[in-house]
Amino acid sequence: MLILGFESSCDETGVALVDASGSAVPRLLGHALHSQIEMHQAYGGVVPELASRDHIRRVLPLTDAVLAQAGLPLSAVDAIAYTRGPGLAGALLVGSGVACAMAMALGKPVVPVHHLEGHLLSPFLSADPPEFPFVALLVSGGHTQLMRVDGVGRYELLGETIDDAAGEAFDKSAKLLGLGYPGGPALAKRAEQGSATAYKFPRPLLHSGDLDFSFAGLKTAVLTQVKRLAHARPEGPATPQLAEALDAAQIADVAASVQAAIVEVLVKKSLAAIESTGLNRLVVAGGVGANALLREQLNAACQKRRVRVHYPELHLCTDNGAMIALAAGLRFQAGLLPDAAAAPAYHFDVRPRWPLSELG
Ligand code: ATP
Ligand code: MG
Ligand code: FE
Asked: Global pTM?
């Protein structure tokens, strides 16, 4: 069962081919990615219309590259998967349109995939794949959730952010520090030179007794601190010029202190989820899962408690096509795909807003 997968929910065009034959964990045969980060950088964030147009430009050359890597013709593909949502409507429509058109031309089924299920299952492509059941910490640019995962398609939400996502907290703080977009990796890099105890930023909901998160207040706290360091008026606007008044050591200290605050909350809540479920396995997925401090602290805490922790490979933490093809493959192996071959439905079906809880 060869599955070609397309990811186009935001600012990465990803294409991949997996082999989901038999019952072994699906194997990646080819994988190509184009990130639009550079294109959007000038605007300080993703411009949806530009994103859609660029997906159109990239998707077919990337597909050719993936098939060349695998040494297979398009006709060898048995099913075509694409990200149905959540994401930007126009961007999703590109992946959906291309997937449906190709599937229709080949007479093969098309498989809509939930983007977060892709992230969630991405550690199955690592050298150390997890086993069910496990607790999952999904930390991406738009989501921060703790889940109990009992199998493919069996996801129970334990807690989630009530406002900003962890990735958003990294990105917004980075923006205030003049570190560009998306600022997570840049902030982590600057933090290496700083002191994590230089500034005491809030750890929201740390002792709330539930598994929810809140990161919106962190942005205000960082802004207040940056204004103080820049000798700006507390009631003044948040302009990109503020950070220019800071020296490199101050930026590094703020970066290290914010990162420490975000990571501490993520680690403590993950451990609380482990404790409340009684499970002994943790899976971390999504872009923030690439963060070195988060990995270091989770590894240390989990080792102490004899909890196994699994991550996606570093390059598969952020958006990619491999996780979409993989999720379709795992669904196929679990017998969860409808018999699309019997009556394939080729409609351009996207869901820009799509809670994982509504996934069957
Ligand atoms: P979603 O999956 O929720 O729709 P998304 O697809 O934009 O959102 P991802 O691609 O999973 O999110 O991750 C991108 C996020 O990960 C960004 O917020 C980025 O700053 C953050 N990120 C990536 N690498 C790191 C890192 N090393 N440290 C901290 N944050 C990081
Ligand atoms: Mg992205
Ligand atoms: Fe994502």
From this structure: 0.96
